[in-house]
Specification:
The chain is built from 13 helices and 23 strands. The protein is an alpha+beta fold. Among the domains are: about 100 residues, Rossmann fold, CATH 3.40.50; about 70 residues, ATP-grasp fold, A domain (Dna Ligase, domain 1, 2-Layer Sandwich). The strands form 6 sheets. Strands 12, 15, 18, 19, 22 and 23 form a 6-stranded antiparallel β-sheet that branches. Helix 8 runs antiparallel to helix 9. The protein binds adenosine monophosphate (AMP) and glycine.
């Protein structure tokens, strides 16, 4: 068992709204000594010390951990996990005592490889879409398989492709062409060396977030995000334009199904397969009829889902993380705020394609009824300027999600930057 520091030094890795939310929640804990974020943003700068280090520069992270006597590292994004940051810590005597929140490399393959995730689900009888996977050598077989399916056709690059690796196509010939583009012409580079072709599932999506210490699990509130750039869920996919928690259609009976048919077999499956997992499991689900099916696993929290899930967590987050590191999660009581939380993402005009950066963001100081989580925003000469496509997430609480959404939109009326865009219909489909 690790020593239980009364006051911990914590490092959060990442620079988005998710990481600002982690930092915001950690900063509320009595158990915090010093908080660092690498590389962070203008939001984390106000409540923590930002370190100018990339999330995949493991050597620089190690140096910072030693220099700042870090006790616990929270890994925000998937890249460092899939690249094995947790293993890197465990294999180095100088830092192996540090708790890392995030799975080891072998388990991070649940997000790092779609085929690995599908095989895991098949092995453990976890409901998901039927599939087959193909490589350059079996592309002809891939065309034949497509011919046996009904449109739309779902093609998924096996590896990480910055959220762009899934194509959903209505036309058979187009699907064949894209399959060739991915396998033969490396459309997504090494990520599309293999392609998973999946049965299309028709239903409404939601996400379930699970904490595990590798032995036990706790379920966090559900959330629904809005991935498309345009209103009415149209246009290009983005990292997420807004989110709502809890998901109104996730009734007790439906949540029980998720727990019994998906969460339990997932955590048991990790154990049976000896996949070491201390961290968050983000299960992307689709409700088909009355039944949940898994669309994907992510080995981290969602962004912007974190911006609505963590604000509803009443339990001290450092206490939760300590219990995860010590494998005593079963003893922790996870308390959830009954109120709804919603977030609206402000983005730079043009996102998810080309957009400008460096625009000053005005009005943040006028926001009173919402929490402003910074994402692609940084400080320059005391001004907050845009530095990314997704700029900030405006989170509000409400007795109902409608009330919370209304508050976020009222707060946004105070904010402005050149070419600011946001969806005005978050929650429209609920
Ligand atoms: P993913 O990157 O796996 O989250 O996929 C991106 C999006 O594609 C998901 O959020 C779904 O909206 C959609 N999607 C993925 N797989 C399927 C499927 N089998 N059936 C229907 N939609 C899917
Ligand atoms: N909002 C979706 C994700 O974080 O992957």
């Amino acid at each position: 068992m690790r020593k239980q520091n009364l006051n911990m030094n914590i490092l959060v890795l990442g620079s988005g709204g998710r990481e600002h939310t982690f930092a915001w929640k950690i900063a509320q804990s009595q158990k915090l000594n010093k908080l660092f974020v690498a590389p962070g943003n203008s939001g984390t700068d106000a409540i923590a010390t930002n370190l100018n280090i990339s999330v995949t520069d493991f050597e620089a992270i190690k140096d910072a951990v030693i220099k700042n006597s870090i006790d616990l590292v929270v890994v925000g994004p998937e890249d460092p996990l899939v690249q094995g940051i947790h293993d890197f810590f465990l294999n180095d005597d100088a830092i192996k005592h540090v708790s890392v929140i995030g799975p080891q490399k072998a388990a991070a393959e649940l997000e790092g490889s779609k085929e690995f995730a599908k095989e895991f689900m098949m092995r453990h009888n976890i409901p998901t879409a039927a599939y087959e996977s193909f490589t350059k050598d079996t592309v002809e077989k891939g065309y034949e398989f497509l011919e046996t399916l009904q449109p739309p056709y779902v093609l998924k690059a096996d590896g990480l492709a910055a959220g762009k690796g899934v194509l959903i196509l209505n036309d058979l010939n187009e699907a064949k062409t894209e399959l060739k583009n991915m396998l033969v012409d490396s459309k997504f580079g090494a990520a599309s060396t293999k392609v998973v072709i999946e049965e299309f599932l028709d239903g409404i999506e939601l996400s379930c977030f699970v904490l595990t210490d590798g032995k036990d699990y706790k379920i966090l509130p559900t959330a629904k995000d809005y991935k498309r750039i345009g209103e009415g869920d149209t246009g290009l996919n983005t990292g997420g334009m807004g989110a709502v928690s809890p998901v109104p259609f996730a009734t007790k009976a439906f949540l029980d199904k998720i727990e019994n048919q998906i969460v339990k077999p997932t955590v048991e499956g990790l154990k049976k397969d000896s996949l070491p997992y201390v961290g968050f499991i983000f299960i992307g689900l689709i409700k088909v009829g009355e039944n949940p099916k898994v669309i994907e696993y992510n080995v981290r929290m969602g962004d912007p889902e974190t911006e609505v899930v963590l604000p509803r967590l009443k339990t001290d987050l450092i206490e939760v993380f300590q219990a995860m590191g010590d494998q005593t999660l079963s003893k922790v009581n996870i308390e959830i705020d009954e109120r709804a939380a919603t977030t609206i993402m402000l983005v730079s005009g043009g996102y998810p394609e080309a957009y400008d950066k460096g625009k000053e963001i005005l009005g943040i100081d006028k926001i009173e009824d919402s929490i402003v989580f910074h994402a692609g925003a940084k400080l320059q000469d005391e001004k907050v300027i845009t530095s990314g496509g997704r700029v900030m997430a405006i989170t509000s609480y409400g007795e109902t999600y409608q009330e919370a959404i209304k508050k976020s939109y009222q707060s946004i009326d105070n904010l402005r930057f050149d070419k600011m865009y946001y969806r005005k219909d978050i929650g429209f489909d609920l």
